[in-house]
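Hi team,

As requested, here is the filled-out complex form for the uracil run. I kept the field names the same as last time so the parser does not choke. Let me know if anything looks off before we queue the next batch.

— J.
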Amino acid sequence: MKDYKNVTIFDHPLIRHKIAILRDENTSMKEFRELVEEITTLMTFECLREGVPTVEKEVKTPLEVCTQQVVKDNAIVIVPILRAGLGMVNGIHVLFPSARVGHIGLYRDEETLEPQEYYCKLPSHIEDKLVLLVDPMLATGGSACDAIKMLKSHGCKNIKFMAVIGAPEGVSRVAETHPDVHIFVSTLDRCLNENGYILPGLGDAGDRLFGTK
Ligand code: PRP
Ligand code: URA
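And here is what came back:
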């Protein structure tokens, strides 16, 4: 895969360790859910290194008053792509409990692999916010590209996309279609199979999170 300026692939031993457990077909639904949340929290730490709206605040320590940088109130909106993106929301909420949540519902047509939209509900004034779009799987990139297009049509200008596992095809497609969106992927897998599943991957993230298979 090309080296894209707007793509960050994590190469961290702790994340690699957690992903190895996540992939295992014997990992329980409970553990899978917990791991997705933990990995999301670790990714958020790096994802928010730049571009976070901050304000100055005076803080009185026991010794003196100082000026500190704090994250602006109500500056971040989390947008999961349904269903599987829901599994990442708590991983960000532990850091920003008051972040509002918008929802974009997309499912992949099993034949064409094209995303089909079925739901969109976003918080008001989302155009002024830093939007963290989340989905554990970035396969062909169709869902992420459509979700970003929907956010842009609502005026969003500051969008970051986080996925746990990415396929090179999907990462390239999103990076090239939306060069203004920074993409954070915790690990880059080998390729897609003939059914559009990521290899080695972890199977169907939605089914594993919600026990639907
Ligand atoms: C999965 C996944 C992404 C999409 C990725 O969702 O959570 O949204 O596939 O594939 P793409 O990059 O090829 O678009 P799915 O459509 O299976 O829906 P679900 O989350 O409801 O299971
Ligand atoms: N969606 C998933 O849940 N898993 C894949 O491997 C590809 C798309």
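Two things worth flagging: The helical segments are 13-23, 29-47, 86-93, 142-153, 168-177, 205-210. The longest strand covers residues 158-166.

Thanks,
J.
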